[in-house]
């Protein structure tokens, strides 16, 4: 169960990499221009993605810590979270295939509640003249409103503890990292490949069918 839990996290990140490139690719690419010392650009790109990973992990720990406490108090809530995870897997699949804007409302909510306040901190990090700033810059952009990340957080809700929620989001971030690192180092190569319609169609269908499978498992557990 635990192995498949983390495998799901990695696959969500990997499959959704095309969306990550679209959302954060401009930031990752421009990072090399913002760095005062061009020879340090690759190191700064790694630090940026490490900061993003740390933010995702923190968010996973917070969400899973709170949800696991309340779920342990209520069987109904625990079952509801299982249904919610399955639903969001289907929504992510449709989103990746670009058949419907199923997650736009989540991004709008995140922008209004969190991002419009955090983005103001950018002015304290420019220019990126230190490795610490690059790390913090990535951690800040880790809170950028993203339906894919929020959906992964919905999955981390089902984690049995804060630590496992953090690990889930950490593995999710690792899934997105190959594309993000490639984008930062070799421009648009990864973006063109990950955004091919056939790739999005295959991967999106995989997530949709997996979501229905999880929903079926949740229903069978509730019946028995």
From TrEMBL:
Source organism of this protein record: Pseudoalteromonas ulvae
Lineage: Bacteria, Pseudomonadati, Pseudomonadota, Gammaproteobacteria, Alteromonadales
Domain called Urease accessory protein UreH-like transmembrane: residue spans: 8-213
InterPro entries membership: UreH-like_TM_dom
Transmembrane regions listed in the UniProt entry: 6-34, 46-70, 76-97, 134-153, 165-186, 198-220
Claim: Hydrolase is one of the keywords in the record: no
This protein's UniProt keywords: Membrane, Transmembrane, Transmembrane helix
Domain of life: Bacteria
Descriptive protein name: Cytochrome biogenesis protein
Record bears the keyword Transmembrane helix: yes
């Amino acid at each position: 169960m635990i192995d498949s839990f983390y495998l799901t996290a990695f696959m969500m990140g990997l499959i959704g990499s095309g969306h990550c490139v679209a959302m954060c690719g401009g930031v990752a690419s421009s990072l090399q221009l913002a760095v005062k010392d061009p020879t340090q650009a690759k190191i700064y790109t790694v630090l940026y993605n490490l900061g993003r990973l740390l933010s995702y992990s923190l968010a996973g720990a917070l969400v899973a810590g709170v949800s696991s406490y309340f779920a342990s108090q209520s069987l109904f809530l625990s079952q509801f979270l299982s249904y919610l995870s399955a639903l969001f897997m289907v929504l992510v699949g449709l989103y990746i295939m670009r058949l419907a804007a199923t997650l736009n409302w989540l991004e709008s909510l995140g922008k209004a509640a969190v991002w419009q306040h955090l983005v103001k901190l950018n002015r304290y990090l420019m220019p990126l003249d230190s490795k610490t700033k690059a790390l913090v810059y990535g951690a800040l952009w880790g809170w950028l409103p993203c339906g894919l990340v929020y959906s992964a957080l919905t999955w981390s809700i089902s984690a049995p503890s804060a630590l496992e929620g953090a690990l889930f989001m950490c593995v999710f971030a690792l899934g997105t990292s190959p594309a993000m690192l490639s984008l930062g180092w070799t421009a648009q190569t990864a973006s063109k490949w990950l955004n091919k319609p056939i790739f999005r169609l295959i991967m999106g269908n995989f997530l949709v069918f997996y979501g229905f499978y999880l929903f079926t498992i949740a229903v069978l557990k509730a019946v028995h």
